[in-house]
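Subject: Sanity check before I submit

Could someone independently write out the C-alpha coordinates for this chain? I want to compare against mine line by line before I put it in a report. The sequence has 190 residues.
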Amino acid sequence: MANADTVTTLDEVHAGIIAAINAQFPTLATVEAYRLDRKTLSLPACLIELTEMDVEPDPGTEQLAVMARFEAHFVIGFRQGALNPKLEVRKLAAAFAVFARLQRWGCPIGPAEVIGCYPDDFDPELDQYECWRVEWRQVIHLGESIWTDIGPTPEPVYSWAPNIGIGNEHYYRELAELLPPGTELPPEEP
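---
Independent answer below. Compare away.
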Protein backbone atom coordinates (compact mmCIF):
# COMPACT_ATOMS: atom_id res chain seq x y z
CA MET A 1 0.00 0.00 0.00
CA ALA A 2 1.31 3.48 -0.84
CA ASN A 3 2.35 5.74 2.02
CA ALA A 4 -0.32 8.37 2.71
CA ASP A 5 2.05 10.66 4.63
CA THR A 6 1.48 14.17 3.30
CA VAL A 7 2.51 16.04 6.45
CA THR A 8 4.95 18.92 5.89
CA THR A 9 5.35 22.53 6.94
CA LEU A 10 5.91 25.73 5.02
CA ASP A 11 9.34 25.94 6.69
CA GLU A 12 10.26 22.49 5.29
CA VAL A 13 9.01 23.39 1.80
CA HIS A 14 10.97 26.66 1.73
CA ALA A 15 14.12 24.91 3.03
CA GLY A 16 13.70 22.20 0.38
CA ILE A 17 13.35 24.76 -2.41
CA ILE A 18 16.41 26.71 -1.27
CA ALA A 19 18.53 23.56 -0.87
CA ALA A 20 17.54 22.27 -4.32
CA ILE A 21 18.33 25.61 -5.99
CA ASN A 22 21.71 25.84 -4.22
CA ALA A 23 22.56 22.31 -5.38
CA GLN A 24 21.43 22.83 -8.99
CA PHE A 25 22.75 26.38 -9.46
CA PRO A 26 26.00 26.62 -7.45
CA THR A 27 27.04 29.86 -9.21
CA LEU A 28 24.25 31.80 -7.50
CA ALA A 29 25.79 33.95 -4.76
CA THR A 30 22.47 34.38 -2.91
CA VAL A 31 19.50 32.02 -2.58
CA GLU A 32 17.06 33.20 0.07
CA ALA A 33 13.38 33.57 0.92
CA TYR A 34 11.85 36.94 1.82
CA ARG A 35 15.02 39.01 1.80
CA LEU A 36 14.30 42.48 3.17
CA ASP A 37 17.60 44.23 2.38
CA ARG A 38 17.96 44.20 -1.38
CA LYS A 39 20.58 46.96 -1.59
CA THR A 40 23.47 44.77 -0.32
CA LEU A 41 22.55 41.73 -2.39
CA SER A 42 25.37 39.46 -3.58
CA LEU A 43 24.82 38.66 -7.26
CA PRO A 44 23.69 36.63 -9.08
CA ALA A 45 20.76 35.98 -6.76
CA CYS A 46 17.56 34.00 -6.49
CA LEU A 47 14.90 35.26 -4.09
CA ILE A 48 11.97 32.98 -3.27
CA GLU A 49 8.46 34.01 -2.21
CA LEU A 50 5.21 32.20 -1.52
CA THR A 51 2.66 34.62 -2.96
CA GLU A 52 -0.72 32.86 -2.74
CA MET A 53 -2.47 29.86 -1.21
CA ASP A 54 -5.85 28.98 -2.74
CA VAL A 55 -7.91 26.30 -1.00
CA GLU A 56 -8.20 23.01 -2.90
CA PRO A 57 -10.75 20.17 -2.48
CA ASP A 58 -10.62 18.21 0.78
CA PRO A 59 -7.89 15.54 0.51
CA GLY A 60 -9.67 13.23 3.00
CA THR A 61 -6.86 13.51 5.56
CA GLU A 62 -8.35 16.28 7.72
CA GLN A 63 -5.62 18.57 6.38
CA LEU A 64 -6.16 21.81 4.49
CA ALA A 65 -5.08 21.36 0.89
CA VAL A 66 -3.84 24.54 -0.77
CA MET A 67 -2.58 25.36 -4.23
CA ALA A 68 0.55 27.28 -3.25
CA ARG A 69 1.90 29.76 -5.77
CA PHE A 70 5.60 30.56 -5.60
CA GLU A 71 7.89 33.04 -7.34
CA ALA A 72 11.64 32.85 -7.85
CA HIS A 73 13.16 36.24 -8.68
CA PHE A 74 16.48 35.96 -10.53
CA VAL A 75 18.66 39.04 -10.23
CA ILE A 76 21.91 39.82 -11.99
CA GLY A 77 23.90 43.05 -12.32
CA PHE A 78 24.47 44.97 -15.51
CA ARG A 79 28.21 44.29 -15.30
CA GLN A 80 28.63 40.80 -16.73
CA GLY A 81 31.90 41.30 -18.57
CA ALA A 82 31.43 40.32 -22.20
CA LEU A 83 28.05 38.69 -21.45
CA ASN A 84 24.78 40.42 -22.23
CA PRO A 85 22.92 40.74 -18.88
CA LYS A 86 19.51 40.90 -20.56
CA LEU A 87 20.11 37.55 -22.24
CA GLU A 88 21.86 35.96 -19.24
CA VAL A 89 18.96 36.62 -16.85
CA ARG A 90 16.51 35.14 -19.35
CA LYS A 91 18.69 32.05 -19.75
CA LEU A 92 18.87 31.68 -15.96
CA ALA A 93 15.07 31.96 -15.62
CA ALA A 94 14.55 29.42 -18.39
CA ALA A 95 17.05 26.98 -16.85
CA PHE A 96 15.27 27.24 -13.50
CA ALA A 97 11.85 26.71 -15.13
CA VAL A 98 13.12 23.49 -16.70
CA PHE A 99 14.58 22.38 -13.35
CA ALA A 100 11.49 23.33 -11.28
CA ARG A 101 9.03 21.42 -13.46
CA LEU A 102 7.58 18.49 -11.44
CA GLN A 103 9.88 19.19 -8.45
CA ARG A 104 8.67 18.22 -4.98
CA TRP A 105 11.72 19.75 -3.24
CA GLY A 106 12.22 16.66 -1.06
CA CYS A 107 8.82 17.15 0.59
CA PRO A 108 5.59 15.11 0.42
CA ILE A 109 3.80 17.68 -1.77
CA GLY A 110 2.37 17.76 -5.27
CA PRO A 111 4.66 18.21 -8.28
CA ALA A 112 5.52 21.76 -9.31
CA GLU A 113 3.66 23.13 -12.30
CA VAL A 114 5.56 25.99 -13.93
CA ILE A 115 3.23 28.84 -14.88
CA GLY A 116 5.69 31.05 -16.73
CA CYS A 117 8.77 33.29 -16.82
CA TYR A 118 8.36 37.07 -16.83
CA PRO A 119 10.40 40.28 -16.68
CA ASP A 120 10.36 41.75 -13.17
CA ASP A 121 10.95 45.29 -11.91
CA PHE A 122 12.63 43.97 -8.73
CA ASP A 123 13.14 47.43 -7.19
CA PRO A 124 12.65 50.67 -9.16
CA GLU A 125 15.40 52.39 -7.09
CA LEU A 126 17.94 49.76 -8.12
CA ASP A 127 18.12 50.23 -11.86
CA GLN A 128 21.54 48.55 -12.15
CA TYR A 129 19.89 45.11 -12.01
CA GLU A 130 18.27 42.83 -14.56
CA CYS A 131 15.56 40.67 -13.03
CA TRP A 132 13.19 37.96 -14.22
CA ARG A 133 10.78 35.90 -12.17
CA VAL A 134 9.59 32.33 -12.59
CA GLU A 135 6.19 31.42 -11.19
CA TRP A 136 5.03 27.93 -10.28
CA ARG A 137 2.35 26.30 -8.20
CA GLN A 138 1.93 23.04 -6.35
CA VAL A 139 -0.48 21.42 -3.90
CA ILE A 140 0.54 21.35 -0.25
CA HIS A 141 -1.44 19.73 2.58
CA LEU A 142 -1.25 21.83 5.74
CA GLY A 143 -1.78 20.46 9.24
CA GLU A 144 -1.74 16.96 10.69
CA SER A 145 -3.12 13.96 8.79
CA ILE A 146 -5.43 11.44 10.43
CA TRP A 147 -3.79 8.69 8.38
CA THR A 148 -0.71 6.99 9.78
CA ASP A 149 1.28 3.89 8.97
CA ILE A 150 0.61 2.46 12.43
CA GLY A 151 -1.00 -0.99 12.64
CA PRO A 152 -1.74 -3.62 10.03
CA THR A 153 -2.75 -2.67 6.51
CA PRO A 154 -6.30 -3.90 5.86
CA GLU A 155 -6.70 -6.65 3.26
CA PRO A 156 -9.30 -6.09 0.53
CA VAL A 157 -12.46 -8.18 1.01
CA TYR A 158 -15.85 -8.37 -0.68
CA SER A 159 -19.48 -9.25 -0.05
CA TRP A 160 -22.84 -8.46 -1.65
CA ALA A 161 -25.77 -6.44 -0.33
CA PRO A 162 -27.64 -6.95 1.89
CA ASN A 163 -24.90 -9.01 3.60
CA ILE A 164 -22.58 -6.05 4.21
CA GLY A 165 -21.55 -3.85 7.12
CA ILE A 166 -21.34 -4.44 10.84
CA GLY A 167 -22.84 -7.77 11.89
CA ASN A 168 -22.21 -9.35 8.48
CA GLU A 169 -18.45 -9.82 8.73
CA HIS A 170 -18.78 -13.62 8.33
CA TYR A 171 -20.09 -13.12 4.75
CA TYR A 172 -16.94 -11.31 3.60
CA ARG A 173 -14.37 -13.19 1.51
CA GLU A 174 -10.87 -12.37 0.37
CA LEU A 175 -10.67 -10.59 -2.99
CA ALA A 176 -8.29 -13.26 -4.30
CA GLU A 177 -11.21 -15.76 -4.23
CA LEU A 178 -12.79 -13.90 -7.19
CA LEU A 179 -9.79 -14.61 -9.43
CA PRO A 180 -9.44 -17.77 -11.53
CA PRO A 181 -7.35 -20.52 -9.87
CA GLY A 182 -3.60 -19.87 -10.12
CA THR A 183 -4.02 -16.11 -10.66
CA GLU A 184 -2.31 -13.83 -8.18
CA LEU A 185 -3.11 -10.27 -7.25
CA PRO A 186 -0.51 -7.74 -8.45
CA PRO A 187 1.98 -6.69 -5.77
CA GLU A 188 1.09 -3.62 -3.78
CA GLU A 189 2.95 -0.39 -4.50
CA PRO A 190 5.55 0.57 -1.89
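---
OP: Matches mine. For the report I'm noting this point. Strands lie at 30-33, 45-55, 64-77, 113-119, 129-142, 157-158, 173-174.
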